[in-house]
Amino acid sequence: MGKTPVNFSGNARQCLDHYAGTLPTGKSQVLAARKPLADFCKASDPLAYRWLNGKKMPSGKNLIRLKYFLHSRGYDVAELRDLAPQVLSLGWIISIGRMSFDEACQKLGYAGRDSFFPVLNNVCNAGRAKLAMIEAILKRYPAEDFVGLNDRPILKTSQRTERSLPTSLRQSSRDAIFQALKGQVEALLPLAQAVLSDEFSDNDRRQLRRSISDDGLYNAAQALHGLCSKESRKLTLDKKGREE
User: Fold this and answer.
1) What is the pLDDT of residue 166?
2) Which of 97, 99, 176, 187 is nearest to 137 (CA)?
């Protein structure tokens, strides 16, 4: 997608109505015209049709994807303006399918979508520790994943605000990561010891390992081992480099 100037400002409903008005109405063209919206939002064509003709407004994950779709099309979507840069970028990564909503919930320690969606919708703040965790997650994604987000201006009180993440973690974010990790490890230890006890069977532990995708338990153990000493860190990073 090439760069597109902001051509309309408003809330998601207003931007969607404006976008609908720009689409062709010819019988042979309408289906193809709706396809980019349906594909981006992972929605059916009939559902996209109802959104565009004003009969239904998306909700939940579809509403979040819609806002980023409109933004990628050059719209200044009001609901995105005041999002923290980390949350804005995370919502984009999720919306383009590089991470699922459920995976993000799990990585950030949210109980479920009911507690996570208000953060993406700017209903409540993520908090410093969560923002630091999000920032660390986002650094795993290459710059090209953010094309469509960072090349579109987001306006706030008539001024463009810088929304790209810094190339290195700010000290406040580093401190927040330390505190978040400390809390997670302290919470993890008694739980791990409980599951290791005879109160849980070998089958229980096998099911736990299978329920954590992409060798998550093994990778977490390796990462924690790497924190135990300078030598452990070197061995962990060397091993990771060989695997990549």
Assistant:
1) 44
2) 99
Residue 52 is which amino acid? L
Choose one of 115, 150, 167: the last residue of a domain. Answer: 167
In order of 22, 34, 51, 167, 189, the CA distances from 29 in angstroms are 12, 9, 17, 43, 59
Tokens coding 47: 């559902």
CA–CA gap between residue 25 and residue 40 (Å, rounded): 21
**Comparing 38-42, 68-72, 142-146, which segment has the lowest mean pLDDT?**
142-146
183, pLDDT greater than 60: yes
| Burial class of residue 147 (count of CB atoms within 10 Å of its CB; 0-12, 13-18, 19+) | middle
Identify the domain containing residue 221 by its residue range.
Answer: 171-243
Read off the pLDDT of residues 112-126 as tens digits, 9 standing for 90 and up: 888 899 999 888 888
pLDDT on residue 165: 46
Q: Which two tokens stand for residue 58?
A: 């998306």
State which H helix or E strand residue 186 sits in.
Answer: helix 171-196
The CATH number for 137's domain is 1.10.260
Task: Please identify, among 40, 61, 80, the residue that sits at the C-terminal boundary of a domain.
Answer: 80
